[in-house]
Amino acid sequence: MKTRKRFEYRIEQVIFDKGESRDQQLLDLLNYVGQEGWRVSSLVVEPRLASNESKIKVLLEREVDDEGEVT
Length: 71
Prior knowledge:
- The chain is of the alpha+beta class.
- About 20% of the residues lie in helices and about 40% in strands.
- It has one helix at about 20-35; strands at about 5-15, 40-45, 55-65.
- A 3-stranded antiparallel beta sheet has the order 1-3-2, with helices on one face.
- A hairpin with a 6-residue loop joins strand 2 and strand 3 (about 55-65).
- The longest helix has 14 residues, at about 20-35.
- The protein is elongated.
- The two termini are about 20 Å apart.
- The mean pLDDT is about 85.
């Protein structure tokens, strides 16, 4: 019998620190969540009007089985 794939989702918000490069901060987050089985589904960049900074929302997904365990 064919079973349907099931996914769970998570949103991470990245607000960049001034010390490290933005690319490195984003890579650090993506490598960290990737070790937990998450993969990027999409990215949304939101400018901050009050300052020069911006933030990124990262939508993550990973496949789970019928019991909610990561596959």
